[in-house]
Write a structure and sequence with these properties.
It is found in: Cytoplasm. The protein is of the alpha/beta class. It has twelve helices and eleven strands. Strand 7 and strand 8 form a beta hairpin. The N and C termini lie far apart (43 Å). The chain binds nicotinamide-adenine-dinucleotide, the ligand O=C(O)C(=O)C[C@@H](O)[C@H](O)[C@H](O)COP(=O)(O)O and zinc ion.
């Protein structure tokens, strides 16, 4: 088993990565305040994995209240959150009840926000079942829901007590979702880990063929990168760099997700197209060369990801991007690349260059 730690003083927690973890309920037991959990999942994941997990938990004396939500980004809403609160109240869950997320990033973000807010905060455990959630969303404590005007606009930082990534669950993940997760994996290489980018280029075919060892390595290396960034700037308050670097491609990508209506583009797909825009803008600023841009495009395409943006029109992109959470006093901060493997936050890109980068990637 691979075992990492996110180092946040009294809020530190382990990240466990291995096949078969769902049946090893004894790994979860030490992290519960009382043997009572509310298990949040969705209509796709529950039939695959809930029964086995509940049986394993009941065997070690844990009582489980299941909460099964509809599936999809379109349900990362107040209504789903209220559905969670309704069950927690109806079944008399108290402050010692641990909320456990079993699913992808949508379930993790929703269940985490419920945990942050129910009775002003209850313990939380992440059991991520998509590649994207195992490499990114289950780690770091960002939770929340979408608003029609912007992605993740309402939420809270609420760290889990434990992240348990069972790599066997990836065997049932659709190919399109595996590719979507790869966008966030590639992100770590681009922002701070050039040797990992080289490794991804050498191993992308094996990763897409779901070689277990390669996937476990990619998950571990991604989580090491994310844990280091979060430990240094947990609440994303650094004026420059810091946790915001994990947002490479996201200002453009979130505009695509919101502009197209949540769910049409997968988060990872929008991040991939947004990454191409950030890379193209970095080239226009003289930081990357054409060969760098082509290197990124080739890797994203090999991973099965889109490199062409949604055709929203530059003005709509700019309007949606103006709501980005990295905006300070009306000034847009973008994550760009000084070179491959070296990201920065940058507030001085001109409107003309941003529009040109968007347009280049929408007709590419
Ligand atoms: N909190 C964070 O730090 C953070 C980071 C990245 C992304 N996110 C958020 O995560 C969300 C995207 O997460 P996602 O890509 O996991 O999408 P998702 O949660 O929608 O899951 C993708 C699809 O796969 C299904 N699924 C999940 N596990 C499965 C399995 N093992 N087998 C078969 N099907 C399975 C789901 O039901 C869903 O249909 C977005 O809302 C994004 O904003 C949050
Ligand atoms: O953990 C982070 O910090 C990230 O930015 C990770 C992103 O991959 C993720 O999509 C996150 O939800 C985006 O955060 P937001 O603050 O831009 O909504
Ligand atoms: Zn993301």
């Amino acid at each position: 088993m691979r075992r990492l730690n996110l180092d946040l003083a009294e809020r530190s927690y382990p990240i466990l990565i291995d096949g078969g973890l769902l049946s090893r309920a004894e790994e979860i037991l030490p992290f519960l305040r009382t043997p009572r959990i509310a298990l949040v999942s969705n209509t796709t994941v529950a039939p695959l994995y809930m029964d086995g997990l509940v049986k394993a938990l009941e065997k070690v004396g844990v009582g489980v209240t299941p909460i099964i939500l509809p599936d999809g980004e379109a349900y990362k809403t107040w209504e789903s959150l209220n559905q969670i609160y309704d069950v927690l109240l109806a079944t008399r869950c108290d402050r010692s009840t641990t909320i456990v997320a079993l699913g992808g990033g949508v379930i993790g973000d929703l269940a985490g926000f419920a945990a942050a807010t129910y009775q002003r905060g209850v313990p939380f455990i992440q059991i991520p079942t998509t590649l994207l959630s195992q490499v990114d969303s289950s780690v770091g404590g960002k939770t929340g829901i979408n608003h029609p005007r912007g992605k993740n606009m309402v939420g809270a930082f609420w760290q889990p007590k434990l992240v348990l990534a069972d790599t066997d669950t990836l065997k049932t993940l659709p190919d399109r979702e595996l590719s979507a997760g790869m966008a966030e994996v590639i992100k770590y290489g681009l922002i701070r880990d050039l040797p990992f980018l080289d490794w991804l280029e050498a191993n992308m075919d094996g990763l897409l063929a779901r070689d277990g060892e390669l996937l476990a390595h990619a998950i571990e290396r991604s989580c090491i990168n994310k844990a280091e960034v979060v430990a240094a700037d947990e609440l994303e308050t650094a004026r420059e760099g810091g946790r915001a670097l994990l947002n490479l491609g996201h200002t453009f990508g979130h505009a695509i997700e919101t502009g197209m209506g949540y769910g049409e583009w997968l988060h990872g797909e929008a991040v991939a197209a947004g990454t191409m825009m950030a890379v193209e803008l970095s080239r226009r600023l003289g930081w990357l060369c054409v060969a760098d841009v082509e290197r990124v495009r080739t890797l994203l395409q090999r991973a099965g990801l889109p490199v062409k943006g949604a055709d929203l029109g530059a003005a709509r992109y700019l309007e949606l991007m103006s709501h980005d959470k990295k905006v300070i006093a009306g000034s847009l901060r973008l994550v760009l690349l000084k070179s491959l493997g070296d990201a920065v936050t940058h507030a001085d890109a001109s409107r003309e260059d941003i529009v040109a980068a968007i347009e280049a990637c929408c007709r590419a």
